[in-house]
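Risk register update: the risk of archive-format incompatibility is retired. Evidence:
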Amino acid sequence: MSLSLAPFTLRPVLVAKPWGGRRLESYDKDLPADVMIGESWEVADLPDHVTDVADPCSLVASGPLAGRSLRSVIEVAGEELLGPVLPTEEGQFPLLVKLLDAREHLSVQVHPHAEYVAEHPGTRLKTESWYVVATQPGSVLFHGLRKDADLDSVHRTIGTPEIVPHLRTIAAEPGSFHHVPAGLVHSLGAGVMVAEIQVPSDTTFRLYDWADEYGRTPRQMHYEQGAASMLLDPPDAESLPAVTGFGVRDLIANEHYWMREHRQPIGPVALDGRPGPRVLMAVEGRVLVEDLVLSAGTTAIVPAAVVGQCDVRAADDAVFLEVGITP
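Archived output:
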């Protein structure tokens, strides 16, 4: 195995949010003092012009490529890294992977679907999936609109607390999976931590922000954009409950990415045989990826050229996510 193609970890991009907290410290994230961090971008390669986040590109943290940006790795080793997977139109990694810590409710929001993006240059499609890592008692997820909701009525409540009764509320359960396709109205509830897998976009339309409830500074609402983007019942908006015991579970496969949950005893692990690179995130226990040790909350990239020969082992009884990119 070439050293330049060995699996590698990345330095997370830490993003302050008014709803964030400090819980990511327990996942070995070096948080700046006195700042509420809501998001740890584990794998990120966004153009500067599509996000307000400073330096939205991950830097390699391990191996001979340490210090290089993920973008530069694609430039020097694109085929070895990506295999048959194409980079974005800007030449960047076609996946964004995050850990989110919701100390308080996130804003109620929606992301634009393909039809909206086609008619509004400058916006980017955003489809995402949540794997619930941790919760607090009573935590909930807001996942879509209630079956009896009426879009015209929902539109009239944008920016007001009256939108909340229209939301479908489900109990947050560690180990559960929830797909959030573009057009689905959604929010993470207070106390929830998730691993979020998404297409590389930061386009979000805010519908309600709980400013009065939490005493937060009001932020911009997106009345027209949000109303035009929300769908009453978008396809593929599914949820899977948590499971117990050892095994491998397919969580989702769509036109952008696919995900599997590994619940593994101590010993060797077989990755999926589909082509392309892998993103591996440890959720519980420790996972050994060649000479890397992934503890809970740690993420690694396995280049496409070495997926079939990469030695992956569970050092403890472990849970980890395997994420691939659809060619």
